[in-house]
Write a structure and sequence with these properties.
It is a single chain. About 0% of the residues lie in helices and about 20% in strands. By secondary structure, it is mainly beta. It has one domain. A five-stranded antiparallel β-sheet has the order 4-5-11-7-8, with no helix packed on it. A four-stranded antiparallel β-sheet has the order 3-6-9-10, with no helix packed on it. It has a two-stranded antiparallel sheet with strand order 1-2. The N terminus is likely disordered.
């Protein structure tokens, strides 16, 4: 049986290191961490480390994706353990409220390597319209006063969020959160909010080693919400980003362990939560 292109695994796989869930495709071993743990080599080898932070939660604008980093040809030494911390996604907002911004995701870390920055929460309504900065920036919220802008992404980890595109009349659209490979989209009209920026499938050969991904993509931004009805919310970005919602309806949360951003919503709706992060260490069999 195949799951995302990987052969069904025996009950116990012994790699060159312990920690996480160990998988193999016959060419590489993969130690997959979906929660905190310790990576401990049992021999000397060289490997690659993919890591993703927790995505930001939505507010009015979509949440930004968690930072995405890949480090190749890392040297590991027998018995020298590495602590792995997996970032949590930003929590959803219930009955959002007018000036509330989304919750940021938290960082993912691997001892000795640069930390991934958590995704920025989405911007709120009038008075809190700017998306929050993060690995990728949250989308700018709806506003009747001025153009909103997305939060800034972290260089080398993600992209900026989109804004409301200057559309400040009802039904008040918003911007999508940034993704690992693309900026969040601005609202395209007064009735269509911005989609989340796309994540990345650059390392899909590693992503396919675990069933937690979305078609090999990771770290997509959340779609922007809409303040009132009779409009179209933004779609989530490829890579686990949650879709936005309209009015009082509930937005979609990001897919767990993708670092995707949560969808934005209307002023009294429930936003989507950001997706938790991930670490995968790959090395030759």
């Amino acid at each position: 049986m195949n799951i995302l292109g990987i052969l069904a695994q025996p009950s116990v796989i012994v790699g060159k290191a312990t920690g996480g869930t160990v998988r193999t495709d016959g060419v590489y071993f993969y130690n997959v961490f979906t929660s905190n743990g310790t990576f401990t080599p049992t021999q000397n080898f060289t490997g690659d480390v993919l890591r993703i932070a927790g995505g930001g939660g939505g507010a009015s604008g979509g949440g930004g994706a968690g930072g995405f980093l890949y480090s190749s040809a890392q040297s590991f030494t027998t018995g020298v353990a590495k602590t792995v911390a997996i970032g949590a996604g930003g929590a959803a907002k219930t009955a959002l409220g007018a000036t509330v911004t989304g919750n940021d995701g938290t960082l993912t870390s691997f001892t000795g390597l640069t930390d991934c920055t958590g995704g920025g929460g989405g911007g709120g309504f009038t008075g809190a319209g700017t998306g929050r900065n993060g690995g990728s920036g949250g989308g700018g919220g709806s506003t009747d006063a001025a153009t909103s802008t997305g939060g800034g992404g972290t260089g080398g980890q993600g992209n900026n969020g989109g804004g409301n595109g200057g559309f400040t009349a009802a039904p008040y659209t918003s911007g999508g959160g940034g993704g690992a490979s693309a900026v969040g989209n601005n609202a395209s009209s007064s009735t269509v909010s911005g989609a989340g920026g796309a994540g990345t499938n650059t390392y899909s050969t590693i992503a396919s080693a675990t069933s937690t991904g979305v078609a090999g993509y990771y770290a997509g931004g959340g779609g922007g919400g809409v303040y009132t009805t009779v409009a179209t919310a933004g779609a989530g970005g490829a890579g686990g980003g949650g879709a936005g919602s309209v009015g009082t309806t509930t937005a979609t949360s990001a897919t767990v362990n993708t670092g995707g951003g949560g969808g934005g919503t209307g002023v009294t709706g429930n936003s989507g939560a950001g997706g938790s992060g991930l670490v995968i260490v790959r090395y030759l069999v």
